[in-house]
């Protein structure tokens, strides 16, 4: 099979890598063959899909670089070779002439450290050439832009709740602001993720393959129930589709890129020329709750930032206490008299509450359903 370079602009999946062999692919000692062994080993140990995808993509890109320079086997890779690759990343310029960010450079180098460490432990190479590689130091920066409450309320007022897409998008953005979940987590929600009785949303297999249960504010829950009961059934073309948020063609669930496209459109329409979409809601939720007195550990639990040091703290967080903190510090929950911004929405939400007794961050290469 002819060697083909992956398309630019998106992460390769594991299946992509299997379909695109590099170098002497049938040689068991080749870099490509060893990558496939590593992928299979990690799959057997239930690595999260996202982590495995990132690991595979960046390791494969390194193998492409090495193959172009006549380096085909693990024995060919030495510390000077890896330092040469590190310089290549440092000197690389994107199509707009800008260099790769420090974070991007680290993201491309860290998978190599993991891979070569594994090769060494499996006795597939004698020594780890990446053992002493020093990664570029990343500056710790605060988010460049935090949406104000007024800006968020303006964005949320833009979708037309009397249209299917508008009602869906309003429910989606209310959820993002209320919970601060990631776009990938929103895309994985299904029709059973929202518990109207407990006023919670369950995130299955979030970052790091961890589940978590988060409180939902009354306002977000009302929009989600309206969407799920009144709007989603009208969108569906595939009756057995389980995804909570449905693409406008009704055939599939809304994918992460589709969520970004939907949210960023309203942000631009609001006249906010800032980079980012879903993460702007995430940063705003965390910042605003902290400013209103929420303890940092509750914010960490909401965001799912489970580091080794803080995992034990998160296990002590109860959903009832988290609900109380959320209700007392989230700005949307402090606006009892401002749940809607105009008369039409007041009437709409009045209907929602009457019916609420029923059970509740790289552009795609091709158009993404929205």
Summarize the structure.
The chain has 370 residues and is mostly helical. The chain has helices spanning 14-19, 31-44, 49-68, 79-91, 102-121, 149-156, 164-179, 183-188, 218-235, 256-269, 278-291, 296-303, 311-315, 319-329, 343-354; strands at 194-195, 200-203, 212-215. The chain is built from 15 helices and three strands.
Mean pLDDT: 82
Oligomer: single chain
Strand adjacency order, main sheet: 1-2-3
Give the uncertain stretches in residue-range form. 1-8, 308-317, 337-368
In CATH terms, what is the architecture of the largest domain? Orthogonal Bundle
Q: Report strand %.
A: under 5%
Q: CATH superfamily of the largest domain, called what?
A: Intergrase catalytic core
At CATH level 3, the topology of the largest domain is hpI Integrase, Chain A
Question: Strand count, sense and closure of the main sheet?
Answer: 3 strands, antiparallel
Number of domains: 2
Distance between the termini: 36 Å
List SSEs in N-to-C order: HHHHHHHHEEEHHHHHHH
Number of helices: 15
Which percent range fits the helix content? 40-55%
Radius of gyration: 23 Å
Structural class: mainly alpha
| Name of the CATH first level of the largest domain | Mainly Alpha
Number of strands: 3
Shape: elongated
Describe this structure in words.
It comes from Photorhabdus khanii NC19. Residues 29-120 form the Core-binding (CB) domain. By secondary structure, the protein is mostly helical. It has two domains: 14-122, DNA polymerase, domain 1 (Orthogonal Bundle), CATH 1.10.150.130; 149-324, Intergrase catalytic core (hpI Integrase, Chain A, Orthogonal Bundle), CATH 1.10.443.10. The chain contains 15 helices and three strands. A three-stranded antiparallel β-sheet has the order 1-2-3. Strand 2 and strand 3 form a beta hairpin. Helix 3 crosses helix 5 (102-121) and helix 7 (164-179) packs antiparallel against helix 9 (218-235). The longest helix has 20 residues, at 49-68.
């Amino acid at each position: 099979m002819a060697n083909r370079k992956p398309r630019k602009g998106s992460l390769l999946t594991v299946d992509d890598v299997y379909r695109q062999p590099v170098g002497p692919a049938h040689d068991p000692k080749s870099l490509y063959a060893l990558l496939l062994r590593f992928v299979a080993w990690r799959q057997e140990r239930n690595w999260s899909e996202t982590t495995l995808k990132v690991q595979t993509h960046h390791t494969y890109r390194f193998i492409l670089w090495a193959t172009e320079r006549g380096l085909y086997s693990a024995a060919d890779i030495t510390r000077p070779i890896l330092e040469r690759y590190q310089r290549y990343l440092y000197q690389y310029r994107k199509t707009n002439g800008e260099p790769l960010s420090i974070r991007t450079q680290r993201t491309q180098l860290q998978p190599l450290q993991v891979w070569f460490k594994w090769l060494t432990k499996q006795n597939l190479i004698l020594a780890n050439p990446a053992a002493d590689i020093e990664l570029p130091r990343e500056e710790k920066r605060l988010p460049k832009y935090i949406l104000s409450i007024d800006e968020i309320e303006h964005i949320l007022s833009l979708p037309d709740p009397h249209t299917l897409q508008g009602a869906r998008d309003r429910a989606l953005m209310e959820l993002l602001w209320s919970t601060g979940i990631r776009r990938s987590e929103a895309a994985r929600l299904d029709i059973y993720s929202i518990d109207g009785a407990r006023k919670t949303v369950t995130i299955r297999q979030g970052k790091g393959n961890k589940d978590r249960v988060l409180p939902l504010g009354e306002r977000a829950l009302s929009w989600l129930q309206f969407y799920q009961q009144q709007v989603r059934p009208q969108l569906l073309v595939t009756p057995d589709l389980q995804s909570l948020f449905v693409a406008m063609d009704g055939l599939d669930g809304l994918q992460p890129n589709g969520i970004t496209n939907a949210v960023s459109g309203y942000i631009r329409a609001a006249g906010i020329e800032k980079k980012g979409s879903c993460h702007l809601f995430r940063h705003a939720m965390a910042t605003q709750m902290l400013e209103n007195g929420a303890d940092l550990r509750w914010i960490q639990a909401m965001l799912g930032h489970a580091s080794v040091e803080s995992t034990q703290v998160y296990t002590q967080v109860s959903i009832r206490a988290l609900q109380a903190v959320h209700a007392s510090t989230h700005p949307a929950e402090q606006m009892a008299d401002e749940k809607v911004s105009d008369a039409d929405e007041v009437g709409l939400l009045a209907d929602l509450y009457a019916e609420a007794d029923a059970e509740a961050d790289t552009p795609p290469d091709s158009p993404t359903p929205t």
